[in-house]
Structure formats: structure tokens, C-alpha cells
Specification:
The protein is an alpha/beta fold. The chain has a single domain, classed as TIM Barrel, CATH 3.20.20. It contains 13 helices and ten strands. The chain has an eight-stranded parallel beta barrel with strand order 1-2-5-6-7-8-9-10, surrounded by seven helices. A two-stranded antiparallel ribbon has the order 3-4. The radius of gyration is 19 Å and the shape is globular. Bound molecules: dihydroflavine-adenine dinucleotide (FDA). The site of dihydroflavine-adenine dinucleotide has 23 residues, from strand 6, strand 9, helix 12 and helix 13.
Length: about 300
Amino acid sequence: MIDQLYRKAVLTVAGQKTIENAVRARGWGMAQRFVAGETPQTAIQAVHDLKKDGIMANLDLLGEFIESPAQCTQFADNVITMLDAAHADGITPYVSIKLSSVGQGKTEDGEDLGLTNARRIIRRAKEYGGFVCLDMEDHPRVDQTLAQFRTLHGEFGGQHVGTVLQSYLYRTEKDRGSLDDLTPNLRIVKGAYLEPETVAYPQKADVDAAYRRLVYAHMNAGNYVNVATHDESIIHDVQMYALAHGISKDAFEFQMLYGIRRDLQRNLAAAGYRVRAYIPYGRDWYPYFSRRIAETPRNAMFVLRGMLKG
Ligand code: FDA
């Protein structure tokens, strides 16, 4: 409850233009903790840096206020440019996209533009042996995202496309089961959007319990699981569960956000677990940065200390 109030308060304040302008003017230095940079080259440098610690990467071009079909298609082009740049630099690209950013919900030539653009991105990623994860957004988009995932999985195969399920939604355990026929590569998260009680558990304990159930069920069904959380108690339980059930360290990976719990990321990689950091980059960093601050007062303190230092 307190978590939700804190998140709501921060997101409300962050949404005000004066706050945004002040943070944009002074905040880039602090945002760099959570965002790799503004260009593909800065993100690629971050991939190389993490590799030194045995940590894999997931590149994410930021861009949430993309409105027109032309902007969506341009955004998809920019993702493809990043795939090309990563490949040219010897990296097998692993990227995440939000279908809304590439046109989901907009129809062009009789087809959903999000699907058309996602197809272009995945086709290019596949050429390079890469992987594209379809991020999950707010609850009204879940049905369409899962349907489009199924279509794209059919066209490109599970080695090249995956998606995300959110444990805070009541519907998610059923959704997970309904995808089992695909043996899908799924990322399990708790969920980052402000959702009403009609669709999502209001209590954190229920979200956490559902999270564990989802990961275990996905493992038991023989699927690859991306355990995307910074929650140490869950990470510990997943390690124990895998050990007790003979699930190999190759059957799952831990995923965390760039700049968050770097100690934990390094320790897990050193212990032989697969670890992947989600590396956001791009000029549109402010909304992403605000959400990280909203996740925990610890991050707000980090930023405040930086601002006081001037
Ligand atoms: P929780 O919030 O319970 O935190 C557990 C512990 O980690 C606490 O001690 C907390 O303080 C610490 N912690 C959490 N966030 C922190 C932060 N930002 N900084 C410092 N400490 C922090 N969501 C979504 O809706 N759709 C998506 O597609 C994705 N994709 C995605 C990819 C990856 C790789 C990750 C890690 C997360 C996402 N998310 C997401 C976000 C996710 O839903 C969730 O909001 C955050 O991961 C925070 O939840 P935790 O699981 O970390 O647990």
C-alpha cells in the first residue's frame, strides 16, 4: 500500500512540466546511472563493459511518446539501425521493444502497424542470430500483445522472439498456461504500471507469491525463464527451487535493470548463473528515469544527493 502511494506520488510529481524541465536541465549526470547514453554507440559500449563481468545485455531504445504512424515506423527504423550497429560491432543483438512504440493499435494497409514493424525488426534480428523480447505494457494491451506474440512466434520461432508476463495481473497464471504449447521464452516481471484493483493484486505479498508460482510453473513446463527482478528473496528461492528440482543453470537467467543492484548482478554471474542487464538508451530518457525513481526511495535519495552536490 505504502509502495503504491509512493509510486503514485513520484509519478504525479514527475509528470509536472516544471519538474521535468528542472530534471532535464540538471539530471543527465544522474540519469546516466540508469541509462547508458543517448546513442547506439554508447549502449554498445555498455554491452562491452558488462561483458567483462560475464553479464549479458538486452538493448532497449527509449521512446514512449511516439504518436503518428510515421514516428512509429521511424522508431522501428532506429531499432533496426541499432541491430545493424551491434552486429557490425560483433554483438549478437538481444533487444526489447514496446509494441506501442512501433505502432500497435494503428492500422496501415489493413494490418496492425505494430505487427508490421515488429516483423521487420525480428526479421533483421534473426538474420544476425539475435532475439527480440516484446515488453508488456498496461493491461488494455495484454490481449493484443499476446496474440501478436503468438503470430510472430509462428513466423520466426521461439529462438528469436519472446514476451513478458506480469505477476500483478490476476489473469497472468492463466495466460502463462495458455502459451505452454509454444514452449515460449518468457520474461516474468512483477509489473510496472499503475493498475486498478479490478485487474491487479493491490497487495505486494500477493504479487510476490504469484511471481514465484509463475516462475516455478514455467520451469516445470520445461520452458526457458527470464527471472526479471531485483528481489533478493525471490532470487534466492528460485536458485533453491532449481537446485531441488534438478533444473540446470542453463534453463533460466536472471535479468535486472542497468545500474540497479550491480553488486548482485556481478555476484550471480560470478556464481555461474546467466545474468542479463536491460540497457536503456536514447534521447527520450526522462519517463524511464522517473519510473526508476518511483520504484524505490533509495533511488530518489541517490538523485537528491547528486542534485545537492550541484
Ligand atoms: P520489488 O519492487 O519488490 O523490489 C525488490 C527489491 O529490489 C527491493 O529491495 C527494492 O528496493 C529493490 N529494487 C527494485 N527496483 C529497484 C530500483 N529501481 N532501484 C533500486 N532498487 C530497486 N515491467 C513491466 O510492466 N513490463 C515489462 O516489460 C518489464 N520489463 C522489465 C525487464 C527487466 C529486466 C526488469 C528487471 C524489470 C522489468 N519490468 C517490466 C519492471 C518490473 O515490472 C518491476 O517494476 C521492477 O522490476 C521492480 O520490481 P522488482 O521485481 O525488482 O521487485
